[in-house]
Design a protein that fits this description.
single chain; 215 residues; alpha+beta; Elongation Factor Tu (Ef-tu), domain 3; 2 domains; 7-stranded antiparallel beta sheet; 5 helices; 13 strands; 17% helix; 38% strand; globular
Length: 215
């Protein structure tokens, strides 16, 4: 599990592409002080496993499903990426629950300054927008952010200077694609509600039966 609080900006050192997969080698600094083989690292919000490790680089394999769901296939040598290690049990929960499992991508349609903040407008598909609620949470390229406004096909987030300096969001411009992960709580609530609606009665004692006989 992650929190969406980016630890550092890393750099793609190399990309090995297969037919429907790829392997990324990523250079960093901060996250390597206790990184181990098999650890999980969120790379632009995508949960990847450390398969090879050296002093300040790690290599991770990316499967077909991840390439289909995210923008990670567009990364090349020299690309900058947001990096966050999985949350330790004794860590601070500074953001929100982030799984590292991307729901889809969005496109930046507008960027404008608002005093010391920068407002990004992002257009996304219906399957993503249905979980977007004003003042709710969303992870954009792995960054835990609060939704400022929500419309039918797009939403906005307001970025403080610290977030701009500490993540790759400041490098993004109109037309760029970003990874989106919805708040997992909303998805669980929807699933449970669907289950309750679809579940067949386990006995003949139903609301209709009780009403019929005066209960």
């Amino acid at each position: 599990m992650f929190t969406g609080i980016i630890e550092e900006i890393g750099t793609i050192q190399g990309v090995r592409k297969g037919t429907n997969s790829s392997s990324l080698t990523i250079q960093g600094d901060v996250i390597f002080n206790d990184l181990k083989l098999g650890d999980s690292v969120a790379v632009n919000g995508v949960c990847l496993t450390v398969a090879e490790l050296s002093k300040n680089t790690f290599t991770a394999d990316v499967m077909h499903e991840t390439l289909k769901r995210s923008s990670i296939g567009a990364l090349n040598a020299g690309s900058h990426v947001n990096l966050e290690r999985a949350m330790p049990a004794d860590g601070r929960f500074g953001g929100h629950i982030v799984t590292g499992h991307i729901d889809g991508t969005g496109v930046i349609t507008d960027v404008k300054k608002d005093d010391n903040a920068t407002i990004y407008t992002i257009r996304a598909e219906d399957k993503t927008m249905k979980y977007i609620v004003e003042k709710g949470s969303v992870a954009i390229d792995g960054i835990s952010l609060t939704i400022a406004t929500a419309a039918s096909e797009s939403f906005t987030v307001s970025i403080i200077p610290h977030t701009s300096k500490s993540t790759i969001l400041s490098e993004k411009s109109i037309g760029d694609t970003v990874n989106l992960e919805n708040d997992v709580i909303g998805k669980y609530v929807e699933k449970l509600m669907d289950y309750e609606r679809d579940e067949k009665p386990k006995s003949n004692i139903t609301r209709e039966f009780l009403t019929k006989y005066g209960y």
